[in-house]
Specification:
alpha+beta; four-stranded antiparallel beta sheet
Length: 110
């Protein structure tokens, strides 16, 4: 579990290590190192996004194709979370987003 405490409440994300073991390990390491502490949600259109963007902190990049290694695809439905990346697949780092609605149109990108 990844627990995110905010002034308006707590968000708890269940991390699916069986589907994305390297991603879950990477995100867990960031959380355990307290790098997410004090970060803000900065996007609120079809997702809410948070991470180390703009903090001056870094976690390194996650360069792995989890879908290729496990064969599992989890759809971006309301309430699910995913690692964000910048226009290049398999280059996620510390940015996570939570889907505010069903966003199957981005399944092949994230």
């Amino acid at each position: 579990l990844l627990v995110i405490d905010r002034a308006l409440g707590t968000i708890t994300l269940q991390l699916l290590a069986e589907s994305a073991p390297q991603t879950v390990s990477h995100i867990t390491d960031i959380g355990n190192s307290k790098l997410y502490d004090g970060t803000s949600f900065y996007r609120s259109d079809f997702v809410i996004q948070f991470g180390l963007h703009g903090t001056g902190r870094t976690s390194g990049k996650l360069s792995v194709n989890e879908t290729g290694s496990t064969g599992t695809v989890i759809s971006n439905t309301r309430g699910t979370a995913s690692v964000a990346h910048f226009d290049v697949p398999d280059c996620g780092g510390s940015e996570l987003f939570i889907n505010l609605g069903d966003n199957a149109h981005i399944d092949s990108a994230y």
